[in-house]
Amino acid sequence: MKMQNKAKKPHVLIFPFPGQGHINPMLQFAKRLHSKGVKATMVPTVFLSKSSFFDSSASIDLCTISDGFDEGGFEQADTPDAYLSTFWNVGPKSLAALIKKLGHTAHPVDALVYDTMLPWALDVAKQFGISSAAFFTQSCAVNSVYYHVYKGHLQLPLRGSHVSLPAMPPLHVSELPSFVAIYGVYRAWLDVLVDQFSNINEADWVFFNHFYKLEPEV
């Protein structure tokens, strides 16, 4: 009697924005997937994979992509605009090359879970016909603020000392994310945070890093 082959584990790439506050929750999610029998591979940038800034688990594989600054990461760029524009140009090509490379191995990619701050990753997933999941690493309350900026419901620069948003208590300007409260100072980062919602409706799934009981209304 022939031995039946074990079912192939689904292979999921976990692609965080290159910042510790984004890597940590997505790494925990990768470990959770691994505990359920899924092959999870973290995809940090080349620079972060070589630094102590990134700490992975032996159970989670690593495959790197380039952000265009392999030797120094963000610090190698002159400005946030320079870093982001280069990453947005180099990153999609590097991610596509990785997925193509893995397609010729015993573990081709079945799905991509990407940080919502990297919306172009969804286009790469579609290019290869693999499933996609957007992952919000910040709280729902913070995401709600950026969403209302994106939709134009919250006009910038802010006027007055308080703002009112649906399903949230009145907020003092000082309680808002600094990218919103201090308009113009962090414009490049604000654009990235607001652009998270540009194609969110096209993702197959949307995940949030939060506890429901802490933010039931949001």
Topology of helices and strands:
Blueprint: E1 11-15, H1 20-35, E2 39-42, H2 46-50, E3 61-62, H3 80-102, E4 111-115, H4 120-128, E5 131-136, H5 140-151, E6 162-163, E7 171-172, H6 178-181, H7 187-194, E8 205-208
Parallel strand pairs: 1-2, 1-4, 2-3, 4-5, 5-8
Antiparallel strand pairs: 6-7
GO molecular function: quercetin 3-O-glucosyltransferase activity; quercetin 7-O-glucosyltransferase activity
Family: Belongs to the UDP-glycosyltransferase family.
Keywords: Glycosyltransferase, Transferase
Description:
It is a single chain. It contains seven helices and eight strands; from the N terminus they run βαβαβαβαβαββααβ. The chain is α/β, with parallel strands linked by helices and 218 residues long. The strands form two sheets. The chain has a six-stranded parallel beta sheet. A two-stranded antiparallel ribbon has the order 6-7.
